[in-house]
Amino acid sequence: MTAPTPYLHLPGTAREALTFYAGVFGGSARLFTLADFQRSDGPADAIAHGELVDGPVALAASDATGDDEPFAARGLMLSLLGTTEPATLRTWFDRLADGGEVLDDLQPRPWGASDGQVVDRFGLRWLIGFEGDEG
């Protein structure tokens, strides 16, 4: 099954955001400017399209240009529940929290799982967790 890839229009921060996310999750950020695509609807060095590659998390972004509205979300979380080893998920949580806001610390729950929520420095809300012990 193919999973959707979140695609963000950011307010001039796409390069910074994708570089940050590549540092959090691994892989690298592939970035193309408006100049690369021969577009003139914004600054030549603005990101026309960028994506995470060679890593475990799919995410794409561009800088909002023209009539594009920059990303804002309410009632949306990106979930990374059980997507990799617990130690890796804990590391991702801590890295996403750097410059962001921990809403609910990653902690054991009464039902036997661990999870937590964080809003990163770019306004994305993440739900991260795993089943069982970190062992």
UniProtKB/TrEMBL annotation:
Entries under Gene3D superfamilies matching the protein: 2,3-Dihydroxybiphenyl 1,2-Dioxygenase, domain 1
UniProt xrefs under Pfam families: Glyoxalase
CDD domains the UniProt entry points to: PhnB_like
SUPFAM superfamilies: Glyoxalase/Bleomycin resistance protein/Dihydroxybiphenyl dioxygenase (SSF54593)
Domain Glyoxalase/fosfomycin resistance/dioxygenase: 14-126
Entries under PANTHER family matching the protein: PROTEIN YJDN, PROTEIN YJDN-RELATED
Name of the protein this chain belongs to: VOC family protein
Source organism of the structure: Nocardioides taihuensis
